[in-house]
Every structure is written in C-alpha cells, then in structure tokens.
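May I ask you to review the protein record following this short note?
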Amino acid sequence: MTTAKTADFDVLIVGAGISGIGAAYHLKTFRPDTTFAVLEGRDSIGGTWSLHRYPGIRSDSDMPTFGYSFRPWTHRKAIADGHIILDYLQQTVDEFALGEHIRFGTKVSAANFDTTQGIWTVCTTDPVTGESTTLTSRFLFLGTGYYDYDEPFIPDFACRDDFGGQVVHPQQWPTGLDYTGKRVVVIGSGATAVTLIPAMADKTAHITMLQRSPSYVFSIPASDPVANVLNGILGHKRASRIIRRKNVALGRGLFKACQRWPRLMRTLLIGRVRMQVPKHFDVDTHFTPRYNPWEQRLAMVPNGDLFKTISAGKASVVTDRIDRFTKTGILLESGQELTADIIVTATGLNMAPFGKIQLSVDRRPVSLPDTTAYKAMMLSGVPNFAYAVGYTNIAWTLKVELVCEHFCRLLDYMDAHGHGTVVPVFDDPVMDRVPMMDMTSGYVQRAIAKFPRAGTSGPWTLRHAYEIDVARLRHGPVEDAALRFTPKKPALAVS
C-alpha cells in the first residue's frame, strides 16, 4: 500500500504582524481552498506594535493608509497610539477568523526548498520550551519586516558603566519604569526620540533631547478634519477610498517635491519649525539638518507636540557629541555636562533581513546579497518564495497589500496552468545591481549590505513608488520572461 507525500500546507506565512495578518486575510478571502498557517515566534500578534512599549509609541504614517483597505480605519485619530493600532489588528484577526491559522511560540530559524519535491521544509523552535518542530509547505511567504527584534542598536558609549542612574533602550523598555520627577536625557533625534520627549515631559523634572545632528521634524494634524467629515457624511466604507487616495497623493506629492526641489523644500520645512518654537530658539543649530529632505525619513510629530513641549520649557534640545558617561550624567565634547537620573538611548534599530531565517535551496544556503529582488517581492534563484517589505517614504501597508494581491494572482495563474514551481531568474550579466534602500540613515547604512539587491531595469527595479507598484503588481500581468515555471509533479509515492 502506498500513500502520497504532500506538504502540510499550501502556504506558510512567517510573522503575525501587520504584513502577516494582511497576507492571511488575502489568502482566506481570495483563495478559500488554500491551506495556510501563520507562524509567530512570540506569544501575541502585532509585531512592532506589541514589541515596543515605550511611552507615546504611535504611528508615523496616517492610519487610513497604514491600516488595511479591506477594513477601514474608524478612529478619529489619524496618527494613532500604539495600543489603538494593536486593538485594530486584533479586531481584524477576530473579524475575519484568522486566529485559527496563527501558531504562537513558533519561531522560524531555517527553511529549505527541495526542488525535486517542490516543497519547503521549515524548521521552528518554541522560544520558551526549546522544542523543535518542522513543517512543510509548497510556498513560503515572509512577513517579518526588517527590524531585528532581539538586538536594538546601542553605540558603545565610553564609561557607560560609570553612570549611577538607569540606562534604557526604547525597544527594551522596562515595565513600570517610574520617571516621575526625574531628570531624563534622551539620546537621539529620530522618530522614537521626538515621540518620547512630549510623552514623558509632563512627569519628568526636565527632559533633554541630546542629538549628534538634527533631523527634519514635520508637524502633521493628529486628526484629519476632512476624513472625519467624509466619514460622517458617507460612512467609513465609502469614505475610505477617497481618504486613502487623498493621503496617498499628499504623501507622494511631498516626497516628490523633496526629490525635485530639495533646496526649496528644505527652506519650507525649516521655516515651518521656526513658526512653532520660541522666537529666539536656535533653529539653525537644533533643527537644520546637514542632508536634503527624504535622504532620511522625516520625523512626524502630531499637532507639533514636540515644539509645544519645548516652547513650554518642559524640554530642551542639545546638539553636541558625547565624550563619555559620568556618574551623574553625560559629558559632552564641548565640556558641558548633562545631569541625568535616567538616560534613554533612542539610538535606533538594527536591520535584519527576513527575520534572520537561514534560507537554502537543495541544502545550499542562499546568500542574500547575491540575490536580486524581483518586483520587490520575490528573490532570484529562490523558488516558491515571496516576502512583504513596505515603503520607507509612505505608509508601509500600501506596499504589503499590493504584494499580497499579486501573490494571490500568481497562485491563481499557476493553478490555471498546472505549474508546481516558479522561480525568478536574473540572467543579465551587464545590469547594475543597487541597494534595496538608498537612504542615508545610519540604520540602513549599517546593514544594507546583508540584504538582497535590486536591479536597474524591468521587474528588477525597486523604487518605493506606490503608483509604479500599482501598475506592476495590481494591474500588470503575472507571466514574465524573468519567471521560470515548472509543471506540477506527480505526488511521490512512499512505500
């Protein structure tokens, strides 16, 4: 007697954050006969939004576009607190009965594709018990983002152990940290730092943002009055399409303006800051970056809360370099010493490609830097594989949804034509290959060499441009000269 050897699932999705939940929805809705599971190494959904617990954590994109198109954002806040976003994700899981597909405590460490069988074998570990298991699937979809959830970036500050107070990193925020009446120094000038300052200022004795160099800080409304009116008149479902189109147009317009007219936009952005801080505040030193707008992400602040906190005298900004930590604070290269009870190292994140999962094909490890991204969602030489990494210059989820749509269309095409495997083949020896991200941010520059690269023409380009991806992923054909399809093979018989 023989039995057919088949995979446990059609698709294994890795990660139960906003990307993985989006992929699960699309498979369940548009391919109801597809079997799938979502593998999550932690004990809760949410990814970034359940990992980070620091004060004031919030979105830095407007929620009508950061949220899903299939489940309109209904909260009045367009820039939402982390717990509201987490509630939204949980409600999405509940509404579409996705929870039955999620396996918690299932951290993926490695995955191998067997070209003979056309099957992925995925190795997982329970982080608590250490128990190892393997699962198999025809396709592997990674919704792991690019954060290293285990190790944030913390510079090696001189004499750090001399400091007599507490040093914390936002990614590892201690539960119940009491900063009431304390002197706090936040090291950093990015999105996390500008979030922490106003969120903590009312309780601290004083809080200081210490930055080595300034970032562009852009004030946006916490609530969108146009969106709230449209929702009231049309209802959330009908209004959602209009609001999303408006916000996409505004976001893309701002980015393109910064690219086309950097000097003008620099003047406008800095001028907008001058209007929101005290008359004699040194904007040239503290809010005038050395780089052009959008060479790094803009740090968004809702309703100018950072500037209001500075204007009220609750917070200070110091631009200088750190010489070393002291027992009572931080000694700067200028000779000034900042006294502190708590130092927050909002010094950024580490990037890690694909959740640090070791991919291999026929037991040969995949060298990610040697691969080339196909349509910014697949990798050359890696069969039956897709990933979702969102935009850096507009809402993350806009890209994720396009990837999920195209992935479902790809599966439909393969089923209709009897294909079992698909692999992108990069066979242009003269095409230049470029980094997946061209931002000058420190976290990008430190790690981008570990990531796959992009090409410079055809489906190998990676532009972080929503309108281009709509044409390519939503409306463009699945069939492409760069894709190699192979027929489904008869099930292997096992005696």
